[in-house]
Amino acid sequence: MATLREDELIYDWNLRGDIHTPPLRRVEYVDETLRDGIQCPSVTDPPIEAKLEVIRLLSGLGVNHVDIGLPGAGQRAIDDCIVLAEMARDEKLSINLQCAARTHPNDIRPIIEISQKVGVPIEVMAFLGASPIRLYTEGWDADLLEQRTRTAVKMAKDAGLPCTFVTEDTVRSNPKLLARLFHAALEEGADGLCLCDTCGHATHNGVFNLVHFTRNMMRAEGFEDRRIDWHGHNDRGHALSNALIAIEAGADRVHGTVLGVGERVGNTSIDQLLVNLKLLGVHEGDLSQMAELVALVSEACEVPIPVSYPVFGRDAFRTGTGVHAAAVVKAMKRGDDWLADRIYSGVPAGWFGLKQVIEVGHYSGMSNVHAWLVSHGYEATEALSKKIFDFAKSTNRVLEDDEIVALIES
């Protein structure tokens, strides 16, 4: 039988027909798992060995930048940042280092000292609250914020470090104040601006409007060469889609954390972002170690992965349903891994270091039983298959592997 082309087997409505959004393009990625991510009250700050491995894996996956901490938080944070920076230097990782800092000399000075000690540049991510509600609560005014902005950026740039000016709660901030602070930061030499949805307030329109406002201001004032970052949170469940909208709108770098860990309900999931950009043909890197990274962060931060978590949850590529399993098995019998990975999955498991798994349960057919036995090294005899099949039908769930093994041994 003639082999069909991929476009004959899958008609992709995502790519065909009218397109109502601008095309996605390649951007850079900023991972904040080891900074913003571990600020979650339910997350354990990982041991240094785990942090080292996280950065190695991020580098291998093609993530461009990693925030290694907030040295202004204390000596432990400083010590960890030094170890992480030395490892990235010694192993010549292809990932750039950042540290977060308030717009205060006491936070920026340790970053300068770490950079000088280790001998590698560390980007200063200097953040400042800018929304009216924050100013009212803190008793701040615009003059004070501009002064802090200029002082912080100048201090970082005078030390020869890259610097991004970060406005917290940007999506609820007044454009008049934003324009003043952005101009001050850029005038002092900031390499870029980071727009933050700190409270997870933004909808798609908010992201689009804010990115375009910032880009237009940069053009008008002669700062076209500076970059725009997008940093989103997930309070309304929009984080991933907002990140994609930010790319469409013109952001140059997008921030995220592994598993979306972060304050309250978390940040943009950088693993989900990379998966989607890979599927859309935008990200060209090898993501086969992504499952290893997600598992490492889950264990080290003590954050369980929901069974239904896209791609990396336990159930993402499992099926216990007869009709689904039968189709997967038929594809496997053809010796066609490409077909088996797509017949009942919109995401090819093999791209991300995973595989399709056929289970046996109360909705299963005999195909499930045969596939399970063969994949676990057993002979799928008629009597054994029927014994397992009959037991599965007497239950109300998918069987655990040890239950099936007990049936076989009995």
pLDDT < 50 stretches: none
Give the overall silhouette: elongated
Q: Return the average pLDDT rounded to an integer.
A: 93
Portion in helices: 40-55%
- Corresponding CATH architecture of the largest domain: Alpha-Beta Barrel
Number of strands: 10
Q: What class do helices, strands and sheet pairing give?
A: alpha/beta
**Distance between the ends:** 43 Å
SS strand fraction: 5-15%
Order of helices and strands: HEHEHEHEHHEHEHEHEHHEHHEHHH
User: If you compute it from the alpha carbons, what radius of gyration comes out, rounded to the nearest whole angstrom?
Assistant: 25 Å
* Total of DSSP H or I helical runs spanning 4+ residues: 16
The strand order across the widest sheet is: 1-2-3-4-5-6-7-8
The CATH topology assignment of the largest domain is TIM Barrel
Main beta sheet: 8 strands, parallel, barrel
How many discrete structural domains? 2
